[in-house]
Amino acid sequence: MDIQDMFHACKLGDLQRLQYLVEMKEVDIDTRDKWDSTPLYYACLCGHRDIVEYLLDKGAKCEANTFDGERCLYGALTDDIRNLLKSYHVISSRTIRRELYEEFLRRLLQDRVYSDVVFRVHGEEFPAHRCILSARCLFFANMFKTKWLNKPVVELNHSLMSEGAFGSILQYLYTGSMGVSMDLVDDCLKLARQCQLYELMTEIEDRMKKTLSWESSKPGVRVTTLVLESQGSDVLQRDLAQLAHWALPDQLNSWVVGELPFEPESLPLSYPDICFCVQEHKFMCHKVFFCGRSDYFQALLEDHFGECQQGESVPTLILHDVSVDVFVRILMYIYTDSCDLHADFVGDVLMWADMYLLPGLKRLCASSMMAYVDLSNVVSLIRTARLFNLPRLESHCAEFIANNLSKVISQEDFKALVIEDASNVQQREETDSIDIVDEIRFYISSFVLTYSEMEEANEKLRLIDDMLEELDIEG
């Protein structure tokens, strides 16, 4: 429903609604409909410059000389919008935020940190990580166990091997997406076939058909770069989840080694380089994931706190106080950007996510908590949201109160929260606002479309005024 609402807002030019969906509901701005069109395309087509500018500022995908970029330029209703699109010289796939999973994976290709193998293709070097390539591609997993066993540098000098194609294949294996020059598409297909990446071959062929079909219908337009978006993010997360499962101690791993579909000797090696000991359980993990995703673990593993101990094969680090149940969720999040969260322990996971400097996991906990909001806990969840800086959870709770105001407004803990917010405003003037009251009023008044909804909103606003009068607060 939110996705359809976003398309509707972009077609109508409803910026306020779009901002609400993107910033509060966290709807993906690059989502596609059944016609393979994005919100940015409809905003361009309908001539809403403010919507286009907002989406570009939020990192909507519209690279020059790609299918999406050329389509938006061609379909733009006005020259002003075309000039706006062109002014974004490098229109990135999204605004880079350090904690984003995709950005983390992309950085791994650029940095040599914790890489344990280098591919040298006709003299050009590509540092990589055996654990990631083994989890993502059975061809690489088998080669690391045989022909490339213990080789720190792998030379690939075959005349048919292209440096650009190899780099694009690595990009796909690390991120689930790929950008490649149209001149190198055939080389990528050949290399994908050699690496037994049949899903990638299908994606390339399908995108080529769509691009060439669209290009042929638009004389004078030429697409020079083929872009595969991370439509297969579920596959990427599934493959990297294998590393998390292989990191689990045997007594915690739900996978039964030795039964179908794998025999023990056919399982890829995971190449761990750090062991975490949690309540006497040993987790065989990878520094590249823990250090790349958490500044806390980066400092810890660089021995700033002197807690690293040398084990028999890999360094062992004891983590104190955290429970196994919580650490398993943190482990799964670090590897896959996702984990199962339930009401009975999501609060503990949130606390340790804050401790381990994992803002993405904190937001995931907040999203999970939204499903558990009810009349008995809505005020306490607002306090939790403020304590851990989770504005989306706080806004969701304020919206819940707005929708259930008659049941919440008489609760003593809610009145105490209003009094606290009012007292936090120093030297209050008559025009000063009260945070929680302002948020509730916003959700009561916003998006009112009919006369009956207006009457209902006015009645709720009167309830708030009566409560403030009862509490002797100007608000």
Structure description:
- The protein has 475 residues and is of the alpha/beta class.
- It has 4 domains: 2-87, Alpha Horseshoe (Serine Threonine Protein Phosphatase 5, Tetratricopeptide repeat), CATH 1.25.40.20; 101-231, Potassium Channel Kv1.1, Chain A (2-Layer Sandwich); 236-255 and 266-368, Potassium Channel Kv1.1, Chain A (2-Layer Sandwich); 378-470, no CATH class.
- Helices cover 54% and strands 8% of the residues.
- The chain contains 24 helices and 9 strands.
- It has helices spanning 2-12, 15-23, 39-46, 49-57, 67-75, 79-87, 101-110, 130-136, 138-145, 163-175, 185-194, 198-216, 233-247, 287-293, 295-301, 324-336, 346-355, 359-370, 378-387, 391-403, 405-408, 412-423, 435-445, 451-470; strands spanning 117-121, 124-128, 153-156, 178-181, 225-228, 274-278, 281-285, 308-309, 316-318.
- A 4-stranded mixed sheet has the order 7-6-9-8. Strands 2-1-3 form a 3-stranded mixed sheet. The chain has a two-stranded antiparallel sheet with strand order 4-5.
- Strand 6 (274-278) and strand 7 (281-285) form a beta hairpin.
- Helix 3 packs antiparallel against helix 4, helix 3 (39-46) packs parallel to helix 5 and helix 18 runs parallel beside helix 20.
- The chain is flat.
- InterPro entries: ABTB1, Ankyrin_rpt, Ankyrin_rpt-contain_sf, BTB/POZ_dom, SKP1/BTB/POZ_sf.
- This is Ankyrin repeat and BTB/POZ domain-containing protein 1.
- Keywords: ANK repeat, Repeat.
